[in-house]
Amino acid sequence: MKLLFIGDVVGSPGRHGLAAAMPGLKERFSPDLTVVNGENSAGGMGITEKTARNIFDNGADVITLGNHTYRHRDAYDFLDNAEKVIRPANYRKANPGKGMVIVEAGDPGMRIAIINLSGTVGLRAARSPFDEADALLADLEGNADAIFVDFHAEVTSEKVALGWYLDGRVAAVCGTHTHVPTADGRVLPGGTAFISDVGMTGARESVLGVKKEQAIERMRTEMPVRFETATEDVWVMGAAIEINAEGLADSIEPFLVPAA
């Protein structure tokens, strides 16, 4: 089966770009399952029920999140009740939402577990992503045919380390959060597709999705600046992964496509 993963959707420009590009991506890759990171979909930070439904309407089967999961308090009940919206599993268990979902996809139907994890270098989480991955994989024994991991992490070294740690145990480990696509996409020796970061779905004429003038002013002056989502030159970034009957990857194909 083929899984299509799309990186952090940033604000309304990212959502509109996703809507514009999705038909072409579906035609190009013919995915059986589409996973989209939506943690920046509401005004550039966080997610709401409205933005989640918009992402689902535009072709996502599962939405993953990250460090801005709880930015909008009015989304907490939605996170608790949404079946296919997941936040990092290594957050506190009492927090709204859940960190994993199992869906059926492909022909014949494969049980695909989608796991969301947060890094702990430069980000806050309740537990180590390595320990959390071990616990989740033990729970999934016999209950999933393949496992996909969205690792939302700050530093490349932590992402690479988790990729090697899970090599041969999951179908893919794809990094998100830093919004810049990396050139290290490959299938590791044990059969796990890996990429440090798939990039973002948003304006490239920006600083990580923020209007470039505002980000430059903040960095240059070290004074508070109100950030706004950039709108120009929107691209959609992600990766397509072929998963075989053994639950491992045959290939990974990163992509960057203009939304227009």
What's the arrangement of secondary structure elements?
Elements: E1 2-6, E2 8-9, H1 11-29, E3 33-37, H2 49-57, E4 62-64, H3 76-81, E5 85-86, E6 100-105, E7 110-118, H4 129-140, E8 146-152, H5 156-166, E9 172-176, E10 186-187, E11 193-195, E12 200-203, H6 212-221, E13 234-243, E14 249-258
Parallel strand pairs: 1-3, 2-12, 3-4, 4-5, 7-8, 8-9, 9-11
Antiparallel strand pairs: 1-13, 6-7, 10-11, 12-13, 13-14
Average predicted confidence as pLDDT: 97
According to DSSP, the number of beta strands is 14
Please name the CATH architecture. Answer: 4-Layer Sandwich
**Topology-level CATH name:** Purple Acid Phosphatase, chain A, domain 2
Q: How much helix, percentage-wise, in residues?
A: 25-40%
Description:
This protein is α/β, with parallel strands linked by helices and 260 residues long. The protein has a single domain, classed as 4-Layer Sandwich (Purple Acid Phosphatase, chain A, domain 2). Helix content is 26%, strand content 28%. It is built from six helices and 14 strands. The protein has helices at 11-29, 49-57, 76-81, 129-140, 156-166, 212-221, and strands at residues 2-6, 8-9, 33-37, 62-64, 85-86, 100-105, 110-118, 146-152, 172-176, 186-187, 193-195, 200-203, 234-243, 249-258. Strands 1, 2, 3, 4, 5, 12, 13 and 14 form an eight-stranded mixed beta sheet that branches. The protein has a six-stranded mixed beta sheet with strand order 6-7-8-9-11-10, with helices on one face. The longest helix is centred in the N-terminal third of the chain and has 19 residues, at 11-29.
